[in-house]
Amino acid sequence: MYIKKAYSENFDFVKYLPIPIVFLGLIVLNYAAIALLNIDVEELLREEIAKKGANRVFIETLLPMAVLLGVLLLWVKYVQKQSITSLTTAREEVDWKRIWFSFGLWGGITALLIGIAYVTAPENFVLNFKPIPFAILAVTAILMVPLQTSFEEYFFRGYLMQGIGVATRSRLIPLIITSVLFGVMHIANPEVGKIGYILLLYYIGTGFLLGIMTLMDDGIELALGFHAANNLISALLVTSDWTAFQTDSVLKDMSEPSAGFDILVPLLILYPILLFIFSRKYGWSGWKEKLTGRIRLTED
């Protein structure tokens, strides 16, 4: 069972605390600074891009997450003495086919939805394609985005899910906590500033989707693939002046964002369909036990 992979006779929850304290503390400090100094994140990004260029700002945005991924994996391996495989999956080896299937499925759906939006409302988009900047973006995004998304998955669905699960002997508690924290982590994103705090429901809902995937599938492979596809395809195909990723993408969305359609369609339609496809392909069963059951760490 995936959560139990973090447990051993020498398990010490205190060793889990420095990583979340530092990372979540940085998020709190960042948001506090933005709120107290009344910083316009959208305007700040615009100024930075004008000064440095979109690709450089994109790299600078992703680089801290890539560094944090390295720190997290080294901490797990050398401080907690846990293998990276057991942080990833309950299987004997990481199932790369699962990662690629999830990546291809959600990447295809994302690209299709962007295509439909462009065909049905072309007036909302302008062609933003410039061969050389896009080529640089493509190389950068392919290298950096998976590192960024992998850190978030290893931290939330791996590190915290396992640590909280072992500490509480519960599946439901870590599912709720990690999903809410994942959503709140995006509170300083310019999208939230543009649309409003209601957008956090989308991020929290996405956190629940990824958490359910992890618990039902006994590993974070599907979550890794989904998250990488979501961020990578979006970064390459479409950008706007009010998103966290402002890139030299193919298209630029000029429409005014709204909270209703963009939140309800994924949460109420696309995510349930995705879970249904995964459940059929991988033979998921025992939903209640896997999502809400107690965890027995020993046979006693």
UniProtKB/TrEMBL annotation:
Keywords associated with the record: Hydrolase, Membrane, Metalloprotease, Protease, Transmembrane, Transmembrane helix
GO function term, MF aspect, one: endopeptidase activity
Domain CAAX prenyl protease 2/Lysostaphin resistance protein A-like: 138-233
InterPro entries documented for this protein: Rce1/LyrA-like_dom
Top-level division of the source organism's lineage: Bacteria
UniProt KW Membrane keyword: yes
Transmembrane region(s): 16-37, 57-78, 99-120, 132-151, 172-189, 195-215, 222-239, 259-278
Pfam families (alphabetical): Rce1-like
GO BP term, example: proteolysis
UniProt-recorded name of the protein: CPBP family intramembrane metalloprotease
Species for this entry: Flavobacterium arcticum
